[in-house]
Amino acid sequence: MSLSGNLKTVSFPDILQLLATGKKTGVLECKTATRQKEVAFKEGNIIYASSVNTSEDLLGNMLLKRGRISKTDLGRAIQLHKQTGRQLGTTLIDMGLFDKSEIGECLRLQIEEIVYNLFSWQEGDFIFHEGSAPKNAPFLIELNTMNVLMEGTRRVDEWLEIQKVIPADDVLFQLARSPKVAREELTISLDEFRLLSIINGERALPDLINLSPMGEFVTCRALYRLIVNNLVEVAGTKEDSVEEQQENEEETVLGIIFKLYSNSFYQVRSAVDEAVGENNSRYSVFASQYRSGLLTFFPGVDPKSDLMPSFEKFIASVRAVPTPIRYYSLLSSLEKMLSEQLVYVYRLLGNGIFRDTVTSVKKEIAEPLATRRELVKRYRIEENFYGTVKRADKTVKMLRGSK
Question: Fewest C-beta in 10 Å: which of 19, 122, 148, 219?
Protein backbone atom coordinates (compact mmCIF):
# COMPACT_ATOMS: atom_id res chain seq x y z
CA MET A 1 0.00 0.00 0.00
CA SER A 2 1.44 3.35 -1.04
CA LEU A 3 0.22 6.12 1.24
CA SER A 4 2.00 9.46 1.44
CA GLY A 5 1.24 13.15 1.17
CA ASN A 6 0.79 16.25 3.30
CA LEU A 7 -1.55 16.80 6.24
CA LYS A 8 -2.82 19.95 4.54
CA THR A 9 -4.68 17.78 2.02
CA VAL A 10 -5.27 14.59 4.02
CA SER A 11 -6.00 15.06 7.72
CA PHE A 12 -4.50 12.85 10.41
CA PRO A 13 -7.95 11.51 11.48
CA ASP A 14 -8.64 10.47 7.88
CA ILE A 15 -5.33 8.60 7.75
CA LEU A 16 -6.14 6.79 11.01
CA GLN A 17 -9.54 5.73 9.73
CA LEU A 18 -8.06 4.45 6.47
CA LEU A 19 -5.41 2.37 8.27
CA ALA A 20 -7.92 1.04 10.81
CA THR A 21 -10.58 -0.02 8.30
CA GLY A 22 -7.91 -1.51 6.03
CA LYS A 23 -6.42 -3.43 9.01
CA LYS A 24 -2.96 -2.30 7.95
CA THR A 25 0.35 -3.23 9.55
CA GLY A 26 3.30 -0.87 9.35
CA VAL A 27 4.68 2.46 10.58
CA LEU A 28 3.20 5.88 9.83
CA GLU A 29 5.82 8.65 9.80
CA CYS A 30 4.71 12.29 10.17
CA LYS A 31 7.20 15.15 10.14
CA THR A 32 7.66 18.88 9.79
CA ALA A 33 10.90 20.86 9.63
CA THR A 34 11.35 20.60 13.41
CA ARG A 35 9.24 17.64 14.57
CA GLN A 36 8.93 13.98 13.68
CA LYS A 37 6.61 11.37 15.12
CA GLU A 38 6.01 7.73 14.24
CA VAL A 39 2.93 5.60 14.93
CA ALA A 40 3.09 1.82 14.51
CA PHE A 41 0.09 -0.33 13.57
CA LYS A 42 -0.71 -4.02 13.64
CA GLU A 43 -3.79 -5.14 11.72
CA GLY A 44 -5.24 -1.64 12.02
CA ASN A 45 -4.65 -1.11 15.74
CA ILE A 46 -2.04 1.21 17.24
CA ILE A 47 0.74 -0.68 19.01
CA TYR A 48 3.44 1.96 19.56
CA ALA A 49 4.27 5.64 19.00
CA SER A 50 7.40 7.73 19.44
CA SER A 51 8.66 11.27 19.04
CA VAL A 52 11.76 10.59 16.98
CA ASN A 53 13.63 13.85 17.49
CA THR A 54 12.86 14.50 21.11
CA SER A 55 15.85 14.64 23.43
CA GLU A 56 14.02 13.84 26.65
CA ASP A 57 13.25 10.39 27.97
CA LEU A 58 9.44 10.46 28.02
CA LEU A 59 8.99 7.28 30.05
CA GLY A 60 11.56 8.28 32.67
CA ASN A 61 10.11 11.77 32.99
CA MET A 62 6.58 10.42 33.29
CA LEU A 63 7.60 8.08 36.11
CA LEU A 64 9.52 10.90 37.81
CA LYS A 65 6.61 13.34 37.58
CA ARG A 66 4.25 10.77 39.05
CA GLY A 67 6.56 10.27 42.01
CA ARG A 68 6.99 6.61 41.11
CA ILE A 69 10.78 6.71 40.96
CA SER A 70 13.58 8.75 42.52
CA LYS A 71 16.11 10.68 40.46
CA THR A 72 18.83 8.39 41.83
CA ASP A 73 17.08 5.19 40.74
CA LEU A 74 16.20 6.67 37.36
CA GLY A 75 19.82 7.73 36.87
CA ARG A 76 21.01 4.20 37.66
CA ALA A 77 18.43 2.71 35.30
CA ILE A 78 19.41 5.03 32.44
CA GLN A 79 23.10 4.23 32.97
CA LEU A 80 22.39 0.49 32.93
CA HIS A 81 20.13 0.88 29.90
CA LYS A 82 22.97 2.59 28.00
CA GLN A 83 25.51 -0.03 29.03
CA THR A 84 23.38 -3.05 28.11
CA GLY A 85 21.47 -1.63 25.16
CA ARG A 86 18.20 -2.91 26.65
CA GLN A 87 15.23 -0.54 26.60
CA LEU A 88 14.62 1.63 29.66
CA GLY A 89 11.25 0.03 30.40
CA THR A 90 12.77 -3.45 30.29
CA THR A 91 15.70 -2.30 32.44
CA LEU A 92 13.35 -0.92 35.11
CA ILE A 93 11.55 -4.27 35.22
CA ASP A 94 14.85 -6.17 35.42
CA MET A 95 15.93 -3.98 38.34
CA GLY A 96 12.76 -4.93 40.22
CA LEU A 97 11.59 -1.31 40.42
CA PHE A 98 8.38 -1.93 38.45
CA ASP A 99 6.35 -4.81 37.13
CA LYS A 100 5.38 -5.12 33.49
CA SER A 101 1.81 -3.87 34.01
CA GLU A 102 3.01 -0.59 35.57
CA ILE A 103 5.44 0.11 32.74
CA GLY A 104 2.76 -0.90 30.26
CA GLU A 105 0.31 1.64 31.68
CA CYS A 106 2.88 4.45 31.46
CA LEU A 107 3.77 3.46 27.90
CA ARG A 108 0.08 3.47 26.98
CA LEU A 109 -0.29 7.02 28.31
CA GLN A 110 2.86 8.05 26.47
CA ILE A 111 1.61 6.56 23.19
CA GLU A 112 -1.79 8.24 23.58
CA GLU A 113 -0.19 11.62 24.28
CA ILE A 114 1.95 11.40 21.13
CA VAL A 115 -0.95 10.27 18.93
CA TYR A 116 -3.41 12.86 20.28
CA ASN A 117 -0.83 15.57 19.67
CA LEU A 118 -0.89 14.67 15.97
CA PHE A 119 -4.58 15.59 15.79
CA SER A 120 -3.55 19.26 16.13
CA TRP A 121 -1.09 19.14 13.20
CA GLN A 122 -2.39 21.18 10.29
CA GLU A 123 0.57 20.51 8.01
CA GLY A 124 3.52 18.19 7.65
CA ASP A 125 4.54 15.35 5.36
CA PHE A 126 3.42 11.79 6.05
CA ILE A 127 4.30 8.38 4.64
CA PHE A 128 3.11 4.92 5.63
CA HIS A 129 5.75 2.17 5.53
CA GLU A 130 3.66 -0.94 5.12
CA GLY A 131 5.04 -4.05 6.78
CA SER A 132 7.62 -2.10 8.84
CA ALA A 133 7.97 -2.72 12.57
CA PRO A 134 8.68 -0.08 15.24
CA LYS A 135 12.32 0.29 16.30
CA ASN A 136 13.50 0.30 19.92
CA ALA A 137 10.06 -0.52 21.34
CA PRO A 138 10.39 -2.11 24.83
CA PHE A 139 7.12 -3.97 24.29
CA LEU A 140 3.93 -3.21 22.42
CA ILE A 141 0.61 -1.89 23.72
CA GLU A 142 -2.45 -2.48 21.55
CA LEU A 143 -4.95 0.39 21.30
CA ASN A 144 -8.18 0.28 19.32
CA THR A 145 -7.61 2.87 16.59
CA MET A 146 -11.31 3.72 16.19
CA ASN A 147 -11.56 4.50 19.93
CA VAL A 148 -8.46 6.69 19.66
CA LEU A 149 -9.99 8.38 16.62
CA MET A 150 -13.21 9.24 18.48
CA GLU A 151 -11.34 10.51 21.55
CA GLY A 152 -8.92 12.53 19.45
CA THR A 153 -11.76 14.18 17.52
CA ARG A 154 -13.50 15.01 20.80
CA ARG A 155 -10.32 16.55 22.16
CA VAL A 156 -9.92 18.76 19.11
CA ASP A 157 -13.42 20.18 19.68
CA GLU A 158 -12.67 20.65 23.38
CA TRP A 159 -9.39 22.41 22.58
CA LEU A 160 -11.28 25.20 20.85
CA GLU A 161 -13.11 26.04 24.07
CA ILE A 162 -10.02 25.62 26.25
CA GLN A 163 -7.96 28.01 24.14
CA LYS A 164 -10.59 30.73 24.52
CA VAL A 165 -10.01 30.80 28.29
CA ILE A 166 -6.36 29.93 28.92
CA PRO A 167 -4.12 33.03 28.62
CA ALA A 168 -0.63 33.42 27.15
CA ASP A 169 2.35 31.29 28.19
CA ASP A 170 3.93 34.05 30.29
CA VAL A 171 0.94 34.37 32.66
CA LEU A 172 1.44 33.09 36.22
CA PHE A 173 -1.36 31.32 38.11
CA GLN A 174 -2.28 31.24 41.79
CA LEU A 175 -5.09 29.78 43.89
CA ALA A 176 -8.02 32.21 44.05
CA ARG A 177 -7.85 34.25 47.25
CA SER A 178 -11.63 34.64 47.41
CA PRO A 179 -13.16 31.83 45.32
CA LYS A 180 -16.49 32.89 43.85
CA VAL A 181 -18.54 29.74 43.50
CA ALA A 182 -22.27 29.58 43.03
CA ARG A 183 -22.83 26.85 45.61
CA GLU A 184 -21.51 25.77 48.97
CA GLU A 185 -20.03 22.50 47.70
CA LEU A 186 -17.98 22.08 44.56
CA THR A 187 -16.79 18.77 43.18
CA ILE A 188 -13.44 18.73 41.41
CA SER A 189 -11.84 15.89 39.49
CA LEU A 190 -8.65 14.08 40.46
CA ASP A 191 -6.89 15.78 37.53
CA GLU A 192 -7.91 19.22 38.84
CA PHE A 193 -6.81 18.30 42.38
CA ARG A 194 -3.40 17.20 41.09
CA LEU A 195 -3.00 20.48 39.24
CA LEU A 196 -4.00 22.56 42.26
CA SER A 197 -1.14 20.97 44.20
CA ILE A 198 1.49 22.49 41.87
CA ILE A 199 -0.03 25.96 41.35
CA ASN A 200 1.84 28.40 43.59
CA GLY A 201 1.74 31.83 41.95
CA GLU A 202 5.19 31.39 40.41
CA ARG A 203 4.38 29.01 37.55
CA ALA A 204 3.01 29.67 34.06
CA LEU A 205 1.31 27.12 31.79
CA PRO A 206 4.55 25.69 30.30
CA ASP A 207 5.85 25.13 33.85
CA LEU A 208 2.64 23.37 34.88
CA ILE A 209 2.69 21.13 31.80
CA ASN A 210 6.32 20.23 32.49
CA LEU A 211 5.60 19.32 36.13
CA SER A 212 2.25 17.67 35.56
CA PRO A 213 2.12 13.85 35.28
CA MET A 214 -1.04 14.06 33.16
CA GLY A 215 0.16 15.21 29.73
CA GLU A 216 -0.44 18.51 27.93
CA PHE A 217 -4.12 18.18 27.01
CA VAL A 218 -5.36 16.86 30.36
CA THR A 219 -3.35 19.53 32.20
CA CYS A 220 -4.79 22.32 30.04
CA ARG A 221 -8.31 20.94 30.44
CA ALA A 222 -7.92 20.82 34.22
CA LEU A 223 -6.61 24.40 34.28
CA TYR A 224 -9.51 25.52 32.07
CA ARG A 225 -12.06 24.06 34.51
CA LEU A 226 -10.30 25.56 37.53
CA ILE A 227 -10.35 29.01 35.89
CA VAL A 228 -14.00 28.70 34.83
CA ASN A 229 -14.98 27.63 38.36
CA ASN A 230 -13.06 30.62 39.81
CA LEU A 231 -10.67 28.44 41.82
CA VAL A 232 -7.55 29.72 40.06
CA GLU A 233 -6.69 33.27 39.05
CA VAL A 234 -3.94 35.22 37.34
CA ALA A 235 -1.02 36.22 39.56
CA GLY A 236 0.91 38.38 37.08
CA THR A 237 3.30 37.69 34.21
CA LYS A 238 6.61 35.91 34.04
CA GLU A 239 9.57 38.06 33.06
CA ASP A 240 12.78 36.22 32.37
CA SER A 241 15.94 37.90 33.53
CA VAL A 242 18.53 38.94 30.95
CA GLU A 243 20.79 36.17 32.20
CA GLU A 244 18.03 33.55 31.81
CA GLN A 245 17.26 34.76 28.30
CA GLN A 246 20.93 34.53 27.35
CA GLU A 247 21.20 30.99 28.77
CA ASN A 248 18.05 29.89 26.94
CA GLU A 249 19.30 31.40 23.68
CA GLU A 250 22.72 29.80 24.08
CA GLU A 251 21.15 26.39 24.74
CA THR A 252 19.00 26.73 21.61
CA VAL A 253 22.02 27.64 19.49
CA LEU A 254 24.06 24.77 20.92
CA GLY A 255 21.15 22.44 20.23
CA ILE A 256 21.13 23.46 16.57
CA ILE A 257 24.90 23.02 16.30
CA PHE A 258 24.80 19.65 18.09
CA LYS A 259 22.14 18.28 15.76
CA LEU A 260 23.62 19.83 12.62
CA TYR A 261 27.10 18.36 13.03
CA SER A 262 25.93 15.06 14.55
CA ASN A 263 23.80 14.47 11.44
CA SER A 264 26.67 15.51 9.17
CA PHE A 265 29.30 13.25 10.73
CA TYR A 266 26.85 10.34 10.71
CA GLN A 267 26.36 10.79 6.96
CA VAL A 268 30.14 10.79 6.41
CA ARG A 269 30.62 7.60 8.43
CA SER A 270 27.63 5.94 6.71
CA ALA A 271 29.06 6.71 3.27
CA VAL A 272 32.40 5.11 4.17
CA ASP A 273 30.78 2.08 5.84
CA GLU A 274 28.57 1.49 2.83
CA ALA A 275 31.54 1.64 0.46
CA VAL A 276 34.13 -0.40 2.38
CA GLY A 277 32.06 -2.25 4.97
CA GLU A 278 31.59 -1.63 8.69
CA ASN A 279 34.39 -4.04 9.60
CA ASN A 280 37.01 -2.07 7.69
CA SER A 281 38.99 -0.14 10.31
CA ARG A 282 40.62 2.50 8.08
CA TYR A 283 38.02 5.17 8.77
CA SER A 284 37.89 4.41 12.50
CA VAL A 285 41.65 4.77 12.76
CA PHE A 286 41.50 8.08 10.87
CA ALA A 287 38.59 9.40 12.99
CA SER A 288 40.28 8.49 16.29
CA GLN A 289 42.39 11.66 16.09
CA TYR A 290 39.25 13.69 16.85
CA ARG A 291 38.40 11.89 20.09
CA SER A 292 39.40 14.69 22.44
CA GLY A 293 37.82 17.75 24.01
CA LEU A 294 34.44 18.84 22.68
CA LEU A 295 34.86 16.70 19.57
CA THR A 296 34.28 13.54 21.62
CA PHE A 297 30.58 14.42 21.51
CA PHE A 298 30.53 13.90 17.71
CA PRO A 299 31.50 10.24 17.17
CA GLY A 300 29.58 9.91 13.89
CA VAL A 301 27.03 7.41 15.22
CA ASP A 302 23.33 7.40 14.40
CA PRO A 303 21.90 10.43 16.30
CA LYS A 304 18.83 8.34 17.19
CA SER A 305 20.81 5.50 18.77
CA ASP A 306 21.67 4.93 22.41
CA LEU A 307 25.35 5.39 21.51
CA MET A 308 24.80 9.10 20.94
CA PRO A 309 26.45 11.22 23.68
CA SER A 310 24.23 13.17 26.06
CA PHE A 311 23.27 16.67 24.92
CA GLU A 312 23.17 17.81 28.56
CA LYS A 313 26.79 16.74 29.08
CA PHE A 314 27.73 18.46 25.83
CA ILE A 315 26.25 21.75 27.07
CA ALA A 316 28.05 21.41 30.40
CA SER A 317 31.37 20.82 28.61
CA VAL A 318 30.88 23.80 26.30
CA ARG A 319 30.05 26.06 29.24
CA ALA A 320 33.27 25.00 30.92
CA VAL A 321 35.10 26.88 28.15
CA PRO A 322 35.66 30.60 28.91
CA THR A 323 32.77 32.67 27.53
CA PRO A 324 34.78 34.95 25.19
CA ILE A 325 36.20 32.01 23.19
CA ARG A 326 33.44 29.43 23.77
CA TYR A 327 31.56 29.73 20.49
CA TYR A 328 34.65 30.27 18.31
CA SER A 329 36.49 27.32 19.90
CA LEU A 330 33.58 24.94 19.27
CA LEU A 331 32.75 26.02 15.72
CA SER A 332 36.32 26.22 14.47
CA SER A 333 37.01 22.68 15.73
CA LEU A 334 33.84 21.27 14.18
CA GLU A 335 34.40 23.04 10.85
CA LYS A 336 37.98 21.75 10.66
CA MET A 337 36.87 18.21 11.52
CA LEU A 338 34.07 18.17 8.93
CA SER A 339 36.28 19.59 6.18
CA GLU A 340 39.05 17.08 6.87
CA GLN A 341 36.63 14.14 7.00
CA LEU A 342 35.05 15.10 3.68
CA VAL A 343 38.48 15.38 2.07
CA TYR A 344 39.37 11.98 3.56
CA VAL A 345 36.31 10.47 1.84
CA TYR A 346 37.70 11.73 -1.47
CA ARG A 347 41.19 10.37 -0.79
CA LEU A 348 39.82 6.99 0.26
CA LEU A 349 36.90 6.50 -2.11
CA GLY A 350 37.24 8.94 -5.00
CA ASN A 351 35.35 11.91 -6.37
CA GLY A 352 32.02 10.17 -7.04
CA ILE A 353 31.43 9.06 -3.46
CA PHE A 354 32.79 12.38 -2.19
CA ARG A 355 30.11 14.21 -4.21
CA ASP A 356 27.39 11.82 -2.99
CA THR A 357 28.50 12.32 0.61
CA VAL A 358 28.41 16.12 0.31
CA THR A 359 24.88 15.86 -1.10
CA SER A 360 23.79 13.59 1.78
CA VAL A 361 25.27 15.97 4.33
CA LYS A 362 23.44 18.93 2.82
CA LYS A 363 20.12 17.07 2.92
CA GLU A 364 20.51 16.10 6.55
CA ILE A 365 21.13 19.61 7.83
CA ALA A 366 17.89 21.12 6.50
CA GLU A 367 15.91 20.38 9.66
CA PRO A 368 18.30 21.79 12.29
CA LEU A 369 18.88 24.91 10.17
CA ALA A 370 15.11 25.46 10.00
CA THR A 371 14.99 25.82 13.79
CA ARG A 372 14.95 29.45 14.98
CA ARG A 373 16.05 31.00 11.71
CA GLU A 374 16.82 34.34 13.35
CA LEU A 375 19.43 32.69 15.61
CA VAL A 376 20.86 30.65 12.72
CA LYS A 377 21.36 33.89 10.82
CA ARG A 378 22.68 35.94 13.73
CA TYR A 379 25.25 33.30 14.72
CA ARG A 380 26.11 32.65 11.05
CA ILE A 381 25.65 28.91 11.55
CA GLU A 382 24.43 28.23 8.01
CA GLU A 383 27.02 30.55 6.46
CA ASN A 384 29.87 28.88 8.32
CA PHE A 385 28.61 25.38 7.53
CA TYR A 386 28.39 25.93 3.79
CA GLY A 387 31.74 27.72 3.91
CA THR A 388 33.23 24.54 5.40
CA VAL A 389 31.74 22.37 2.64
CA LYS A 390 33.08 24.78 0.00
CA ARG A 391 36.58 24.64 1.51
CA ALA A 392 36.52 20.86 1.35
CA ASP A 393 35.35 21.04 -2.25
CA LYS A 394 38.11 23.50 -3.09
CA THR A 395 40.73 21.23 -1.53
CA VAL A 396 39.44 18.26 -3.52
CA LYS A 397 39.62 20.26 -6.75
CA MET A 398 43.23 21.17 -5.96
CA LEU A 399 44.08 17.52 -5.27
CA ARG A 400 42.45 16.42 -8.52
CA GLY A 401 44.30 19.13 -10.43
CA SER A 402 47.65 18.04 -9.02
CA LYS A 403 47.30 14.51 -10.34
Answer: 122
